[in-house]
Structures are given as structure tokens and as C-alpha cells.
Design a protein that fits this description.
By secondary structure, the chain is α+β, with helices and mostly antiparallel strands. It contains eight helices and 14 strands. The strands form two sheets. Strands 1-5-6-7-8-14-9-12-4-3 form a ten-stranded mixed β-sheet. Strands 2-11-10-13 form a four-stranded mixed β-sheet, with no helix packed on it. Helix 4 packs antiparallel against helix 6. The radius of gyration is 19 Å and the shape is globular. The chain binds 2-oxoglutaric acid.
Length: about 325
């Protein structure tokens, strides 16, 4: 059991996201998508298109261009995924006290009226430097796992084969309109019984909801892609739900798009444009569902820069 000393609490993270998740009028940013799409989780009606990772590159590029997303079947040797999974299981076992603490904090926030699926509610740092954040009840984000984000933590060696599989590298060379880099490597453990996540795009956050607001952001040449790497078989019911084609469609048009779930298992990669509207589905299964994730972004893109550190006006909970 970790002592309170070992749990370096970071309440400022929760305050930061309270600001970041509101627009310039102080409205919680997911509300705009919730109004257009609703918050219900319907039975999956479509699947994200899947292709062998070895398919001709033109076919992979065409799928991402048309739908914003593709499942790359067999993109990573399953042995490498299994080895990372074992290391990740061990790391998570050590982080159990932090997880318990985050559950307790979220429960306290929910008693104060926060929704179980609302965005970030806090983050704790382990002595190893790994950071564990709760993103909804039962959903966690563990980072930074690899050497590119810092000195490299206890999972850096094991995660390396998952970071840039050949099909992802080839796709990025074609799809990125700008020099790019591996920006963030982490994992998304989702406990049995976890609530779903909120609809969102990954291309930015903050009072302007992205860089310059949705309309301009969507017109920018592509600058942000994600790879989700399932660590084992999981039911698509509990998987990631992506609005196909939403990388090119503003809020007014998203309700007409197909809601597709990604059917992917160990060795596969769910590759998608960060402009796509998506969310994690609740995990009604009996087992934890784990994904590794990799963010690839333009070299110039910096997400989550903490303005409170530089602009005192942002350190209050009201937008300046
Ligand atoms: O947990 C999931 O399936 C979705 C993850 C997600 O929303 C994200 O990567 O931004």
C-alpha cells in the first residue's frame, strides 16, 4: 500500500482541465457534440473498415482519406503485443494504490454533481514517473511510456515495437502534410464496469476547442493521427466508436454519419485521423480492456500546454 508521501497529488491537473474543457463562453465542450449526437450507446451497427496491414499503401491511404479511420489487421507481431501486455499488467498492479485513490476522488466529484463520463478529474504520479489519470469512471490514461516523452519509464523497452509499426509509418509519410513526430505514447486501461467516454475530437482542446475552432481546424492540412493498439481480444461492444467521415464534417453534419466500432484484437492497430469525432464505449465485460496508444502529430503541434504556468489569468477557473 503506497503512503500518502508516495502519492504526489496533482490537483492542479483537475483545475487545468476544468478550464481546458470549456469553450470561450464557459460551456463544457462535449455538450455541443452531445446535443448533436446524444449520449446513448446504441448497439454497434457498423464496423470501422479493416484491411490487412500489408495491403497496397494506396488502399490504406484511400480508406483513411474516405473514412478517417482504418483497422490495420496484423500490423504488429502478436508476440511483441503479448510481451508488452505482461509488462503493462505488472506496472498496473504496482499502480493499484493510485488507481484506488483516483476512484475515490472521482466518487467525491460525482457526489458534488460531476457526471461519471465527464473529462479529466485528476492525475497522480508514481515514483517511477508514470502518470495515471482518470478520464471517466473506470477509464484511465497511463503515460508517458516511451523514451520520446522523457527519460523513458519502466515500460519503455516493451512498448517500443508498438510505437511505429511499418504500416503506420508508411501511412503517416503519405498523410501528414507536414514534418511529424511521435508525440505521446500511453495506455488506456478500462476496467470492467467502466462508463463510456464523451464524444470528442483529439486535435486540440482549450477555450478555442482546438487551435482556431472547429471550422478552421477541419480545413487545416492533416496534422494529427492516432494509433490504438489493443493488448488482447475485446468485444467491439466495449471498443472505440468512430463517426466515419467526421474528419471532414463539422458539428452540424455529424448526426448523419455512420457510427462504427473498431473490431480489433492483439496485433491490429486502429489508425485514425485526430479530426474524427469518437468516444470509448462502456466496458460491460467482466475483464479489463487495455489499449496502448500512440499520438503522431506535426512537429509544430503542442497539445495541453499549461497556460496557467505562463498566463496568470488562466489560473482561475473562469475563462479570462
Ligand atoms: O477508449 C477508447 O476506446 C477511446 C479512446 C479515446 O477516446 C481517445 O483515444 O481519444
Amino acid at each position: 500500500m503506497a503512503t500518502q508521501d508516495e502519492l504526489a497529488h496533482e490537483d492542479s491537473v483537475a483545475t487545468f482541465y476544468k478550464i481546458q474543457n470549456c469553450d470561450e463562453n464557459g460551456e463544457y465542450r462535449a455538450n455541443k457534440y452531445n446535443r448533436a449526437l446524444g449520449t446513448a450507446f446504441l448497439p454497434p451497427a457498423a464496423h470501422v473498415p479493416a484491411l490487412p496491414a500489408t495491403a497496397p499503401l494506396d488502399d490504406l491511404v484511400a480508406a483513411v482519406a474516405a473514412h478517417g479511420a482504418v483497422v490495420l489487421k496484423g500490423a504488429i507481431p502478436v508476440g511483441d503485443v503479448a510481451a508488452f501486455r505482461a509488462a503493462h499488467d505488472a506496472a498496473l498492479a504496482e499502480l493499484k494504490p493510485l488507481k484506488d485513490e483516483l476512484y475515490a476522488r472521482r466518487a467525491a466529484a460525482e457526489r458534488r454533481g460531476e457526471a461519471s463520463e465527464s473529462f479529466y478529474k485528476g492525475e497522480l504520479r508514481a515514483p517511477s514517473g508514470l502518470r495515471l489519470r482518470t478520464t471517466a469512471r473506470g477509464r484511465f490514461d497511463l503515460k508517458h511510456l516511451d523514451r520520446r516523452d522523457g527519460p523513458g519509464g519502466p515500460l519503455a523497452a516493451a512498448v517500443e515495437p508498438l510505437v511505429l509499426p511499418p504500416a503506420c509509418r508508411a501511412l503517416l509519410q503519405r498523410l501528414m502534410a507536414t514534418p511529424w513526430r511521435v508525440k505521446t505514447v500511453g495506455s488506456l486501461p478500462t476496467d470492467a464496469g467502466a462508463s463510456g467516454g464523451e464524444w470528442h475530437r483529439d486535435i486540440g482542446e482549450g477555450p478555442c476547442e482546438g487551435l482556431w475552432g472547429e471550422e478552421l481546424d477541419l480545413r487545416l492540412p492533416d496534422y494529427y493521427f492516432n494509433a490504438l493498439v489493443p493488448l488482447g481480444a475485446a468485444s467491439p461492444e466495449a471498443g472505440t466508436e468512430i463517426l466515419l467521415g467526421s474528419h471532414a464534417v463539422g458539428r452540424d453534419g455529424v448526426a448523419d454519419l455512420a457510427r462504427a466500432v473498431a473490431a480489433a484484437g492483439a496485433g491490429d492497430v486502429v489508425f485514425f485521423n485526430g479530426k474524427c469525432v469518437h468516444r470509448g464505449r462502456p466496458n460491460a465485460a467482466e475483464a479489463r480492456r487495455d489499449l496502448a496508444y500512440v499520438v503522431y502529430a506535426a512537429k509544430w503541434f503542442e497539445q495541453g500546454r499549461d497556460p496557467a504556468a505562463e498566463l496568470p489569468a488562466y489560473a482561475s477557473t473562469a475563462p479570462p
